[in-house]
Structure formats: structure tokens, C-alpha cells
User: What shape does this take?
Amino acid sequence: MLEQQPATAFRELDEITSRTDTRDILSHATKQAESYEDYFIVDIDAHVTETQFWPEIIARIDNDVIRQMGEAMSKRPGADGTLLPNSGNTALLNIAPGMIYQPLHGRIPHQAGLLEPVDAKGCHHFTELARRAMDAMGVDYQIVFPTPMLLLGLHPEDDIEVALSKAYNRWATECVLPDDPRLKGLAYLPFNTPEACIEEVERGARDPNIIGFTVTSTRNRPIHHNRYMRLYSMIEEAGKPLVWHSGFNWGDPSFAQLNRFISMHALSFVHYSLIHLTNWIINGLPERFPRLKLLWVESGCVWIPFLMQRLDHEYMTRSSEAPGLKRLPSEYMRDMYYTTQPLEQVQSENPAVHPGGIQRRDPAVIRIGLAALGLRSTFDDHNAAVPD
Assistant: This one.
């Protein structure tokens, strides 16, 4: 007869909500981080949900008319999130608050709003949250980047993109980045208006907390157009990188055929990087701006060998259409920088596939031997990654 075993005491875990402490959510990552103390780790794409601090940003819009528009929109009923809890203020933005898929319909609630209690003495609310995440994951630096503004490149009013980008850059450099030397920023460039981009480059080039300039790739502008040449030249002269941050757009005619967020999300982030990088290379911009460093963010890596093969094949048969190139397209691509997010993990529990059980690796890194890689976490996103 089996002896009755004493009941094992289990600690009941609290439900994770939008108020759960970051350090509790990342407790396992903290243990893993102990193994990486000797590594220099940079989180290249640490998103802030800027709409949680939107009144601070709108107040910094230098255009009186647009600022008044934003303030008036912010005062409408429900704009503060009372009708759609945790939605944040979306005044002036071209986003659809009713189509929020990243929190997986409540299963990843922490991302739904920055409601975590913070006793931020002498620093901004977001700075304290960023510190908690960096300390928990063992990250040395975080590069702050906006989130709802990812779609601003498709805004029907270019002057709105200009006003919001300038206001966001001011907010980041005045309120967040000076609080902690481990926080750095990328100046948002209102790419649809090159003249305004030049003004932001002139400011960002002098700011030590701005380590580069970023363009949100979700837009339909030919990046090789002559109107951008002066901009690229100035960024090259500044000695700071140009970052292309991809995103999604369900409104794109191609993606309108897809009936699930998972389908659109899987394809669209790579889609815009494929187009912009192809235009950059085939139109000879690597030769025209050889000292300008490019970084491609949030498309992963497995698309890189695909595009290398396709462009090399076409170039070897139709090189007359790319007279500005002196090397194969793949060779220029090897000089560029990429982030690993999302980590393309190969995994299987089938012993016939992987006799050792579940295995994880990044096939793109193995195949093309890229050394220029950066981590991107966004730990509370549905496709987050920690330094593991």
C-alpha cells in the first residue's frame, strides 16, 4: 500500500496585470542574466508607449495651430482612456485604437498600459520603468524608440508627422534621456518632409544622448529619390547611423488579402525592409555614401540570405540596370547592421527532427555568419526576446 505523501506547499503566483512590477515579470530573465555579466548587451529597440505621456509631448509641439488641435482632441470624452481603458491618448495619430492585437486580447496585459506603480524620485516615470527592465535583464544600454508613431509615415497630413516627430524628439531629450546615462535615443525623422529631417539632424548631431537617426519604414516613399540626398550626406557627415525601423500596415493593398493579424504580422515587417534595402542598393547609394552606417530593425534575419541570393542573381544577369554598383549586392548587405528581433528560433520536440529534443538557434546567423547583430527586447510584447 502506497504511503500517503504530505501535501507540497506551492506559492500562488499573483496574476500579471498592467500594474505588475517589471522585476517580477522578468525574474527568470534576471537569473539568466547572471550568466552574461561579461557580455556587453545593448537593447537596440526598447519601445516606449509614448501615448501614455502624450500630453507632455503635445505640449512641446511648436506649431501653435497643431498644438491647439491636439489639446482639443485630448479633451474629447474618452480620450483619456475612460471609455477604452489603458488605450492612452491618441490625439493627432493615424492609428485605430479598436484594433489592438499586441497584448493578445488580454493574455499579455502588462503592455496594455504603463500603470505599474513607480516611486520615481528625481526622474521621469518611464526612466524608472526602463531602469527596472535593464537591471532585470542585465542590459547595459537601452535605445528608446516610440511605438504608436510607427505608422506616422502613412499619415495623410505630412505637417502632422513633422510636428509630432519634433515634439517627441524634444520630449525624449528633455525628459527621459538625461535621467540615466544608460538610456540613449534615435531622433525620429519625419521622412515625408526632407527639409524638416535636416533640421532634426542638425539638432541630433550635437546631442550626445542621440546616437543616431531613425526612419519608420512603414511608408511608401522611394528612399532613393534625389530629394533625400542632402539628408543622407548630412547624416554621414554627423557620423551617426541611419536606422530603418520596420512595422506593419494591414491597410496595404497586398496585406488587405490577409484575414488574420498573425499572417499580416509575419509578412509586413519584412516587406518594408525588403523594398527599402533593395532600392538603397540597386540605386547605388552604398557607393554614394560609403561611410553612412545603416541598421535594419525588427525584421529578424532570415530574410537576409533570401534577398542576397535574389539580388545577386538579378545583378549578374542585368548589371546594366545598376551601373552605380562596384560589388555584388550581397557584399554591400554584409556591411550593414541588423537586429535579431524577432529571434527566428528553430525548435522541435520530434526526436526524428532533433534527436536531442528542443533546440533553438538563429538559422540566418549560422548561414551567413553575420557579426553585426543587435538585441531588441520589448519584453512585454508577444514576440519579445531577452538576452538568453
